[in-house]
Amino acid sequence: MIIHESLIELNVTSKNKDEIIKTLARKAGELGRVSDVAGYMQAVLAREELFSTAIGYGIAIPHGKSSYVKEPFIAFAKSQEAFSWDSRTDQEVRLIFLIGVPEERANDLHLKILANISRGLMNDSYRERLVQATSAAGIVTIFGEMGL
């Protein structure tokens, strides 16, 4: 499965985008989905420099295509409070989805994952359930219902 309970961080208190991405990337490294966390982080932060991945509805979807990603994944974090994801926008976020895709499968898989997340999150019910969820198992169930 593309998401795993150990890739979920509930109750994030940091309001620092880089710290949250690093926390999630480290989890992916610990699970063996990323071979070099620093290298993967560099790809994600380079993407963030191009433009913000905050998409509205309290959601950010940072992502990186990298040769350091061994197996595709989605890591998820939920912040206690909404906060400004990027100083270049006024978008506040609370739900963060970090996507990792191996570079050689980047084009098709990356777009498929983004499309599935976006389609699922158009549904108010899924967003609200993600905000209300209190366990990693509950988050995994919701992701499954979203087709991820």
Automatic annotation (TrEMBL):
Protein localization: Cytoplasm
GO molecular function (one): protein-N(PI)-phosphohistidine-sugar phosphotransferase activity
Name listed for the protein in its UniProt record: PTS system, fructose subfamily, IIA subunit
All residue ranges annotated as the PTS EIIA type-2 domain in the record: 1-146
Main location: cytoplasm
InterPro entries, A to Z: PTrfase/Anion_transptr, PTS_EIIA_type-2_dom, PTS_IIA_fruc, PTS_SugarTrans_NitroReg
One GO term of the biological process aspect: phosphoenolpyruvate-dependent sugar phosphotransferase system
Pfam families named in the record: PTS_EIIA_2
UniProt KW Phosphoprotein keyword: yes
NCBIfam families noted in UniProt: fruA (TIGR00848)
Keywords annotated in UniProt: Phosphoprotein, Phosphotransferase system, Sugar transport, Transferase, Transport
Cellular component aspect of the GO annotation: cytoplasm; membrane
